[in-house]
Amino acid sequence: MKKILVIGACGQIGSELTPALRKVYGNDNVIASDFVFPFKNEALNNSGPSCKIDATQIKDIADCVKKYHIDSIFNLAAILSAKAEANPLMGWDIGVGAVLNCLEVAKEFGCAVFTPSSIGAFGPETPADGTPQDTIQRPKTIYGITKVTGELLSDYYFLRYGVDTRSLRFPGLISNVTLPGGGTTDYAVEVYYSAVKNETFFCPLKKGTFLDMMYMPDAIKASIDLMEANPDKLIHRNSFNVTAMSFEPEMLFNEIRKHVPDLKIEYRYDELRQNIADSWPNYMDDSAAREEWNWKPEYDLQTMTVDMLRTLKMRFK
Predict the structure, then answer these.
(1) Predicted TM-score (pTM) of this structure
(2) Residue 121, CB-side half-sphere exposure with 13 Å CA sphere
(3) What are the pLDDT digits (tens) for 236-286?
(4) What are the residue boundaries of the structural domains of the chain, listed by start?
(5) If DSSP codes are grouped into helix, strand and coil, which group holds residue 163?
(6) Most CB atoms closer than 10 Å: which of 101, 133, 224, 296?
(7) What percent of the chain has a predicted confidence (pLDDT) above 90?
(8) DSSP secondary structure string, 257-302?
(9) What residues are annotated to the active site?
């Protein structure tokens, strides 16, 4: 990667991936873009080239790729699971339309393309424990349907046109930078904010609801490592299971209570989010990623909790 375009640079992943890419490849070589421009994130505005891109408009993407001689596109445009259920057509337009636009531009200009997939690409018929790399994928949400479609389109453009497509099936992502944006796993971020603010946390999921999770620094590292991996060793490409930890709400709350003993929790069941969570894996088998490009997370529940609380406490002093 020499010239990189990040689409959705102000989102949950992009707001941390973009600075990381600029640190590795140089500020001038990473172009940040988003639907709203100029960005509210002044650090992204000021640290390198930036522009407005509506990912549903192929001309926006093509113009930027031509202008900056882009060779790698990180397509992070997405509507998260719960929000996509509230607006399925928008979920489809962004979840599939943006992918297809990036693939078409990449085919024309010879770019590589990274597009995140998700545990949402699985469904209730998928084995929930140790979910295999290759298994049945019958999601029951528009979010999941768009993720499976994106995986298939990316494989098609690789096999049919030779576009260097790569993808990760992310678990729930936990960040100390960006606030949650309407995902089913967002409770695992929100509770840390409640802990440092001394607020009661209202949990939308039931006790015993296991889900795969990952701390954002590991997600950023995985994205860059995959795009730098030797293509000759990649078998799956679209998309690799990756995970770092699996827990249910009480496990998370008890870990936080080791540092914030007075954390108060109330369960307020959200039927939509619970139904989505119940259709997703308890934990995935990510051995293919470990074997094909040496994936290994650096954070577990304990070390993530220490870092999350330390960072947020400094912010809310």
Answers:
(1) 0.93
(2) 29
(3) 999 999 999 999 999 999 999 999 999 999 999 899 889 999 999 999 999
(4) 4-171+215-241, 174-213+244-283+298-315
(5) coil
(6) 101
(7) 86
(8) HTT-TT--EEE---HHHHHHHHTS-SEE--HHHHHHH----S--HH
(9) 143
